[in-house]
């Protein structure tokens, strides 16, 4: 088992990464508050892993709420089912919520934990690659609005992240690739050597070799933990983690949530942000080709869907959470391995990027 720490003063917590952690009763004890535990999971994950987690928690009063699976269900109505379950079970302020699943479950459970009786304890037990390398770490929780992704939410840190890498064995290949988008992202924004490593070892990762998977999860969490510890509430450098997301969120919202996986939309978003970085003269043609090749080799799309026009992109991007004083800010690449957040670009260049794909 590998342990990392997200250093946030009194709210410091650990990320535990290893095979079989879901069934280790000792692991939960120190993080659980009181005797009441609500497991929040979904219809895909419950048949696979709910019993395992329930057994590990046999000393506690455990209830579960099973949500439908998919980004299209990250809504106010579905979120409310968590409160119905908590109130039906008469759970009090001393209960603990455990999110067992991917990013959607983690974001909804975390936001419910932030709000239920003004805040209860919360543990992330991520079961997808995307959740293990990204969404379970850092405390961004929330739900979608028809007008924009993750528009309603809170920063609310978990007490622990328990990432059982054995759960990746049952992950569909499409979901594995979607998680890889966020892994590759860390290389683009922060770590050129990791990018080199990914290019060399991608087949081992796609083949789910355990050493390769452990390496990418650990390195991703190290980078994310460092950035979150330095800027928990995204006043500055945390926005780097949003590389590809302004374009990606526009795709997810524009297509209708759930049509594209989040990681797929981010993959295309990274290619579009790299395209703009090249138009600004920061990336060479060869760099841009390298970005697209790595993304495609991970089994991810590199071109936006024709259904979302350049004009629609602009409309959707205008509500991005990084907009400051009415000005759109984007995460671009100064070079491969170094991201930067900037609003200082010629709008015509953004327009050229968006129109490059307009059909
Ligand atoms: O943790 C962060 O900060 C991120 O931006 C990580 C993203 O990969 C993640 O998708 C996040 O949920 C997006 O947040 P948002 O603020 O753009 O909604």
UniProtKB/TrEMBL annotation:
GO terms for molecular function: 3-dehydroquinate synthase activity; metal ion binding; nucleotide binding. Residues 65-177 form the 3-dehydroquinate synthase N-terminal domain. Binds 1 divalent metal cation per subunit. Can use either Co(2+) or Zn(2+). It is an enzyme of class 4 (lyase). It comes from the Bacteria. NAD(+) binds at residues 69-74, 103-107, 127-128, 140, 149, 167-170. One of its GO terms (cellular component) is cytoplasm. GO terms for biological process: amino acid biosynthetic process; aromatic amino acid family biosynthetic process; chorismate biosynthetic process. Zn(2+) binds at residues 182, 245, 262. Pathway: Metabolic intermediate biosynthesis; chorismate biosynthesis; chorismate from D-erythrose 4-phosphate and phosphoenolpyruvate: step 2/7. Pfam families: DHQ_synthase, DHQS_C. The keyword NAD applies. Its EC number is 4.2.3.4. InterPro entries: Dehydroquinate_synthase (IPR050071), DHQ_synth_AroB (IPR016037), DHQ_synth_fam (IPR030963), DHQS/DOIS_N (IPR030960), DHQS_C (IPR056179). Catalyzes the conversion of 3-deoxy-D-arabino-heptulosonate 7-phosphate (DAHP) to dehydroquinate (DHQ). This is 3-dehydroquinate synthase. It comes from Thiocystis violascens (strain ATCC 17096 / DSM 198 / 6111) (Chromatium violascens). The lineage of its organism: Bacteria, Pseudomonadati, Pseudomonadota, Gammaproteobacteria, Chromatiales.
